[in-house]
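Purpose: get a first structural picture of the assembly so the mutagenesis plan has something to point at.
Setup: two entries, given in the order below. No constraints added.
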Amino acid sequence: MFKKNFSLPFLVIIVSLLLGGMALAQDVTEVTFWHHEAPAHRVKAIEEVLNMFEEEHPGVDIKQEVVSWGDAYAKTLSAIRSNTVPDFQFDLPELNIVANQAGGILPVTDLVKELDEKHNILDSQMAPYNYDGEYWGVPVWTMPFVLLYRPSYLEKYVGTSEPPETWEEVLEYAKKMTVDTDNDGETDIYGIGITASDSLLTQEMIWAVMSSYGTNVFDEEGNLVFDSPETVKALEMYKKLFKYTSSSATGWSWGEFEMNLAAGNLAMAPYFGGIQRRFYEAKDFDIAATTIPVPAAGGRGTTISYPNGIHIFKATRERGTYEIVKEFIKFLMQPEILARFTAGQEPGSFVPVTEDAAKVPEFWNNSIVSAYEDINKVTLKAAKKSNVYGFATGKAVNLSIGKISGANLFAKIVQKAVVEDLTPQEAIDWGEEEMKKYMQ
Amino acid sequence: MREKKLVVGLFLLLPLLLLICVFYLYPIIAMSRLSFYSTQFGFGDLKFNGLNNYVSLLSDSTFYTALKNSLVWTVISLVVQLSIPVGLAILMNQKIKGISVARSLILVPWIIPGVVVAIIWRWLLEPTMGIISQQLMSLGIISHTINFLGSRSLALITLIFVNSLKYMPFGMLLILASLQNIPKSLYEQMEVDGANFWQQLRYLIMPMIGPMIGFMGFLVLVWNFNVFDLIQMTTEGGPSNATLTIPVLIYRSAYRTFNMGQSAALSVIVIIIMVLAGILYFKFAWSGSDEV
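Result (structure tokens, whole complex):
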């Protein structure tokens, strides 16, 4: 009896819930995106922004999926081929070019122009996404290189509190700060931390120097102009500086480099400001930054920065999610949101690309950003005078830069000069020949 | 009756054949086809290119560097991973207190994923702060730190050592299983006849475990030639291509420099090399050990 009485209303409730759930599910539009920021604190910061957007847009469910940088290219290409792409993806200019050449993404020129008008996006960060007459990605944050240094070492071994302004001074200071503190015959502090491994890190470091000297990979017509007196001088300086770094830096990647920097083994280093989190956790405040130096004889004085942007896949048109993705990007680019999004993910390393987001309290109130306020001011300043290899002229004029950087060619040129001890001119000649192969 | 059995047998084999066709045969055919095309990504921009991918590959010095490194890697790995596990297995076959714990512990490197092994060893081998250089220095064995992964002369041999540490436990396990199949009475008979350890090894143990070593040799050959994760996660083929092997070059061509046609050509060459190596191995090495 109980069974009969219980079953009917129970069944009605279950069916109603299911139908209600289905109706609700039909109202919710699901949007998926890929990003490449695997650390838990970055995923959490992204989730917070997604929740804020979903609160304002109850009918939208945005899901983040982490794809490591190591897999990003392979998975993007496979997804484009099999039409299983997410709706949008965070990228770097190289990944943007690859996704575009594989026919997977949509132009976003109108959106970029609208956002630029509203929030004033840094020109240096928009340029790499502008090619073939359109913008193919919306820059969101950037990661500029600055010259990090330990003020206490500078005072103790160089006798000054002023950081070097020219590369010649960097060399002189590096020499003075390379010391064997306990006289055991082993160097304990290296004057500068630069690498010569077959890695993206080496590529970034050499470009910070080359960019400052005025190297261009291509001219405005897309012709290869890499082999220039500026490039040779930059590599000469890098090779000279390498005498004052650890010889093991021929095998260093980010992990080993950051470990040595945090341990106090390196007095100076051209690097991202994002090392702050590691220093903050160790309660180490003996770190400061200055803009990347210039050559004494004059140069371009720019640094390297990596614009991180968003591209929208063509599939959003078929799925009817294109407008929602645009809406999300507009939401994300609001100064308060963008400030929280960047400072929350990686304070000091992820710098907003819009001038308004760099001014709001949401950015400066972040505990790590405020603890290293001076470094962050330098980083923001550096972002304005920065570029990435292949885009130094302000336009992506030759898309073969994707292959050239993918091959770690700038790192390989450093290896030729430092590990194989070729002269800088010989290493650059070799590099230029390799570049020609990738341009065919 | 025999025909019926044959049909049933074939029917039972069908799922496996289907899987092989879908997951191995089709990709190999598709990749072989791709190797005759000029293409960045493997789709969309296919242009028939004849044998150009092969020609450009064979005229590229990087290919020969990678091939040489792969051969050095495989040959040294074969020697190390076939000899040391034999000694370890003999040791682990003894009745010593706590041997079962030792047997379990020795398998740990084999169980750990390759990516984790790579990261652990990167930290251990870091010259300035890594534990290995520091300990060797404090024990007075070396006077200067050793640049294991950043030196052109040391990087390859260091990675072969690290990789061998990972694979040796599995070899040891196979040989140990083989050793435990040797009847105890045979050892006793040899002891009665006055045979010492080396004579037992030569006339009893090696002939009995020979087929297993032979089989293991093929596994070691294939596995080691194909190692990718450890190299990619530690040196990415550097410094100055000192650890660049064929699998790393295949990945680099496909997803770094986006020359999928050439990457496919390289993969076809590897398949040919591996199939030839397999045929030669089983013709000469394997059948030889079987006859023992």
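The mean pLDDT of chain B is 89.
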